[in-house]
## 1
Amino acid sequence: MVRVERLSFSYVVRGRRFPILKDIDFHLEKNGILCIIGPSGCGKTTLLFTIAGLRVPDGGSVWVDGVEVKAPRKKTAVIFQHFGLLPWENVYENIALGLKIRGVPRREIMRGVESTMEHFGITKLARKYPRHLSGGEKQRVAIARALVLKPDLLLLDEPFSAIDALTREALQEFVLRVWKEWSLTIIHVTHDIEEAVFLGTEIIVLGKDGRYDHHYTLPREKGEDFRDGPVFHDATVTMRDRMRRIVNESSL
Ligand SMILES: Nc1ncnc2c1ncn2[C@@H]1O[C@H](COP(=O)(O)OP(=O)(O)OP(=O)(O)O)[C@@H](O)[C@H]1O
Ligand SMILES: [Mg+2]
């Protein structure tokens, strides 16, 4: 579904080139969940934006569903770091935004937004503004806003970073439910190792200098008490060790 080939990317600031990603190579099957982890500033958001077609690589290419990504793609939805909800619009308008941009007729927008709100149990929040929502509610609204566009690829950029541990676990389970129900392919950026192991069918570790480091595969069906079992434990230990080495190597 997603193929990234020898991808490199630099930001150019006042004529100076700052290389961020180097030779990133991976592919993700349809209906997989790829988690990208790595220390702060290593280029996770940049990689996600390149896959979304919001950044143009200097070298290499990104392919989604057999087509090279050169601009934002209709069936790719992005949930930004801190959700990216518009504070001056209510929940209904926030969810309707993407459909409006696409010029969908009003009646169809109403039908789409109402049925999606109902699906996620947020109908009663329709007239509230983002500042009146809890972190968990905001996350549901952000997911509804993405899914009303009927995407096949969902890109999530650290959607749970500001949420307490228990709510976070409930939301991770919510993402897994949505993944199954909507048969999505997901790329999820996080710097939380446990989250990556819980959600991912694959995990990529990005190094501090934007090098792609390791690729792990995890079981798709994880079962109810996966978090308490040996696979979860072993994978988190391995991953933590890898991350520690990356951070140490880059600080030498
Ligand atoms: N628009 C920009 N112009 C120039 N440099 C940028 C720009 N956006 C990001 N950077 C730099 O590129 C590097 C990678 O940024 P990016 O946001 O991709 O990191 P990240 O891994 O998502 O970090 P975090 O975990 O903190 O969200 C950082 O050093 C950042 O300062
Ligand atoms: Mg980021």
## 2
Amino acid sequence: MRKFALITGASSGIGLSLAREFAAEGWDVGLVARRREKLEQIGHEIEDRYGVEAVVIVSDLSQPDAPHAIVEACEVAGRQIDALVNNAGAGMNGGFLERSWDEQYGFLELMLHNYLKLGHLVLPGMVDRKFGRIINVSSVSALLPISPAHTRFSGSLYPGIKSLLVRWSQSLRLEHEADNIHVTALCPGFTLSEFHDVNGARSMVSSLPSFWMQTADQVAKSGYEAVMNNIPVRVTGAWNKFMVGLNRVLPDPVSEALMRAQTKRMKRQLEKAPETA
Ligand SMILES: NC(=O)c1ccc[n+]([C@@H]2O[C@H](COP(=O)([O-])OP(=O)(O)OC[C@H]3O[C@@H](n4cnc5c(N)ncnc54)[C@H](OP(=O)(O)O)[C@@H]3O)[C@@H](O)[C@H]2O)c1
């Protein structure tokens, strides 16, 4: 039987591209998201194009019991989970106090708790079988100074959550070094997907120079290659690598000043050309 990769947030963007990437490499895939119709259409497309099996699992990962139900659905389908891609997510615009505590808590559930819970549920099987591949989709925002744009469009918890995913991935990788389990924190920068439609940042992102943007397929290829080669943290794209490298050598106040200047420049461009929105 082919190996099985469970991919959350597989109905669009980076998750969809990762599902295609795994399938193209001969993996069966479990596709998780809320939109059943999209998932079913993608499942058929993947089965036809790559000749592998696609299992559709409809789930709302902002609900605390979602990970248990997802793992159960895999068991019912007779599948053990050989690879886990924790990817589902959306930015939540507005400052910390502009959102209720329930909204902030729901955000933590989707973006963090359920990543950890899924990891906790699937790892024992991986340890027993001495095989596992895990990608946790983080962000370059985990590795750069906080930008006012992050807190405005993705929420003030976003960079911290993504940082925790990097550190957790590094810990897991070390803990399970002897178990043939590879863990990668995938850190993309601005990527073409539905993400910026959901969080309202589309016009801001449209004002960026094209070298700053990557396609979801580019990110997915890089992520797949990284986890197969057991690379702990993968920053995708030359421009993002450059920024992260620069941030490592510059003193914090200089990096922060550069980030503020960049945000101001983007705001000015937006004011000048609102029709790009
Ligand atoms: N795009 C970027 O610039 C960028 C940069 C760095 C990191 N990232 C990270 O990349 C990951 C994927 O984002 P993307 O850019 O591919 O965005 P996207 O195109 O909007 O895809 C998000 C996916 O997550 C699913 N999802 C959202 N809320 C969900 C929920 N409550 N329950 C289950 N599934 C849910 C969506 O499916 P349904 O709507 O069908 O549920 C969709 O499949 C996120 O973790 C994001 O933080 C994105």
